[in-house]
Amino acid sequence: MAMPEPAATGGTSAEPGKCVPPARPEVERLKAYSAPLEGRRGMLRLDFNENTIGPSPLVAQVLRNFSTEEIAVYPEYDGLREALVQNLLETGCRPGLLPEQVGLFNGIDAAIHAVFQAYGSAGETLLTTSPTFGYYTPCAGMQGMTIEAIPYQGETFDFPLAAIQEALAARAPRLLLICNPNNPTGTRLPADQLIALAASAPGSLVVVDELYEAFTGDSVLPCADFTATPNLLVFRSLAKTAGLAGLRIGFAIGHADVVDRVSRVTGPYDVNSVAVAAAFAALADQPYVDAYVAEVLRARDWTLEALRQAGVRHHCAGGNYLLIWPQRPVAEVDGALRREGILIRPMAGKPLIDGCFRVSIGTTSQMQRFMAAFLPLER
Ligand SMILES: Cc1ncc(COP(=O)(O)O)c(C=O)c1O
Question: Which portions of the chain are predicted below pLDDT 50?
Fold first, then answer.
């Protein structure tokens, strides 16, 4: 096999005549996923759809009291699945959900990775939409899967339902991944249509990534019967609403056998003890999360009205984010806002939305600060 050129970055190049061992061909072809940049602390972070005010005081208290004994021992997961099930049932999930139907992951990124490792073989197809969350395609790529990404439709980025139905029927993909509401277009597909898609394709694993469902209220879980549609798997997280993004914890909910397969490809202690303790506390303070979501929705209304009045082209459908097409080049706007201590996410290179940026929605006062910095750039 041909050896790749020695790596030439960051002083890690090999000595003359020595070669870096090649990774799997699929990995050699991958471009690293660009994760959040460094240096974001102290800024108004409207770039990665995180909770912008931090977690419940109960979480902070648990972390302050975290003992050295708890740090020294491997994590224990007893009770966390039960606590999540309890929380899901209280927030509208279909009755009958059991703890063994919940998988714990080191963030949803790890759950996505595990789904691909467990289900995606080389040559099989990932069916998804475009543009969507950026981590699905590298995971498919590292498995050597073929990617079929169907574009959202029209100026309002409608869900391409007929094309997805057709592709499901024609090609029986191994995986169908739908982000609902979609990041970044906010596109929503009603729960009954998601379930109908899963029911129509029993040989495909249909994954619904609903990290932002709290901002729309249309989760698939109230309608999901995992005995009738065992090929449906749902992602939930405490990153975007409860403010635990930095602790990395996420949940995959589905048929116990699917959760078992996805969990088999993760390490036994992948979720750390601090994240577990914080998750218990966050789940115990649902009113805090509800109040944060309500404030984001108020801030969204305020922002949309301000954009309308200023005549700025924008698109907002679901989730704690919206898209804005500025008059100046996005890179210029990004730079100017950054100098004001405000971070946004340019969508450069993304199909259909190249030329706009995504701004996360925080509190009303944070959005007022954003608009005060952004609107002068439109003149
Ligand atoms: C749609 C979607 N899925 C998954 C993730 C990853 O979530 P986590 O922080 O739990 O890994 C994100 C993060 O931005 C996301 O937007």
Answer: 1-8, 10
